[in-house]
Amino acid sequence: MGAASNATYLGLDLSTQQLKAVVVDDELKVLHETSVQFDNDLPEFRTYGGVIQRKAEPHVAVSPTLMWVKALDMILDKLRVCGVDFSKVAAISGSAQQHGTVYWGKGSRHQLQNLDPNKFLHEQLAMSFSVAHSPVWMDSSTSEQCRRLEDGVGGPLKLAEITGSRAYERFSGAQIAKIAQKKPEAYAITERISLISSFAASLFLGDFAPIDWSDGSGMNLLNIRTKDWHQKALEACAPDLRDRLGTPTSSYSNLGPLSSYFVERFGFDEKCRVIAFTGDNSGSLVGMRLKEGDVACSLGTSDTLFLWLNEPKTVVEGHVLCNPIDDEAYMGLLCFKNGSLTRERIRDTAAQGSWQIFEELLDSTPRGNFGNLALYYDAQEIIPFLIGDHRFNKANDEISRYSSKEVEVRALIEGQFIAKRAHAEDFGFIIGPHTRIFATGGASTNKAILQVLADVFNSPVYVSEVANSAMMGGAYQAKHGLLRDKYSFDEITKSLPEPTLACQPYDDADSLQYKW
Ligand SMILES: O=C(CO)[C@@H](O)[C@H](O)CF
């Protein structure tokens, strides 16, 4: 990699519940890391888990766009207080929750291009959005728009073949269609529609940033083979949509110089470059340096499984996205909406709100949980399309409650992982003797939960030293996009330590209850 320079790289992850940032040195080692929690640090926006959902419309989920802008103001000030020398930052990139959409109003591009370094971003962009509350991935209110989109291109399988997925309620195409139908005046004055990832890149660029191919694959609008919008899908969603989306780009594109706003306000070098931002799961694949044959399991607000694919495929459930590291490759993704918030609910009801008690309860029950199995869906689940708690006893009778807290806790965790394995194998994931599971996300720091993951998949589970792979993926992608002409991704990341083995599947086959 040549002489180690004193260059640093800034990576961000604009996730559902928080904005995270990390500064790494030229060897990609963490120098500084901080976060802004939306609910606690920005209480004026009155979110729960970073999202606003009302009882009257339980399938609607939105987040205040300006909250994300203000979080960026805050996190850069926090980094400055941490002692970050912004003048050393050579490039910036990041990840963001997928599928959500940001609606820039007329005149907002001019505002972005002329930001006053003496003012906060949120002061100057307060009136820049034609839709103040962005629909986010937890929304499931667009089934009507999904059907129309599938009809417009020739059916669900045709849409899956072209865009990598059949129509999904949370995907951007259906969400944009709903805005165009329900808020036509807002849509009419919308100058640009960003994903949350390209919205974040736009703030740093001081101009509209293009949507990247990998996150763009989560819109039901992009042809994942030609990497261009699919005209029939665009027309099935909203009028004149192509111009509002701009031209999509590779997920490691070097978009241009950092906006002068950040140079003058924070002391960044004017030569600092902005590299395309991407979706959080794609960013996690970058941050985990996932290799073909490995399976990643991200345990966050949503739980996801993903893997490297060399070729696209047509799937009825789950998604195929363009690969964020190799423009010719792809990635497979399965998303389960009921992740950490559901685990927290059972932690609160069964373990008095304590993860330590939760782990003790989980460790106190045998694998297989005496034949009890359950599925817990606080919100409308994506796969399967189900809601509510569904508990079963060893006679396979559905029951309303378990008599013991220990059984409830293990039923939750085993049910979550057994569902994941079942859908993964339906998707075509091969779980075999050489499979390695790479765990990331908040719950990947909980050893008892990882042991169940290893047991259910009958595979070893590895973890990286930094649990937030989407954020680290932003930092790695910043260097990758800046030096791509000289070095491959593997060369750029070869100095990083290999993930560590967290646990092996329980090898006492006699007592192992997961008979497949
Ligand atoms: O919807 C999802 C993926 O398809 C989620 O993993 C979101 O990206 C979480 F932010």
TrEMBL record:
**Enzyme type, top EC level:** transferase
TM spans (from-to) = none
A Gene Ontology term for the protein's cellular component = cytosol
InterPro entries, alphabetically? ATPase_NBD (IPR043129), Carb_kinase_FGGY (IPR000577), D-XK_euk (IPR042024), FGGY_C (IPR018485), FGGY_N (IPR018484)
* Domain Carbohydrate kinase FGGY C-terminal, residue spans: 296-478
Cite the EC number.
Answer: 2.7.1.17
Q: What's the catalysed reaction?
A: D-xylulose + ATP = D-xylulose 5-phosphate + ADP + H(+)
GO terms assigned for molecular function = ATP binding; D-xylulokinase activity
Q: What does this protein do?
A: Phosphorylates D-xylulose to produce D-xylulose 5-phosphate, a molecule that may play an important role in the regulation of glucose metabolism and lipogenesis.
The family line of this record is: Belongs to the FGGY kinase family.
The name this protein goes by in its record: Xylulose kinase
Q: What taxonomic classification does the UniProt entry list for its organism?
A: Eukaryota, Metazoa, Ecdysozoa, Arthropoda, Hexapoda
Q: Which gene encodes it?
A: LOC107265408
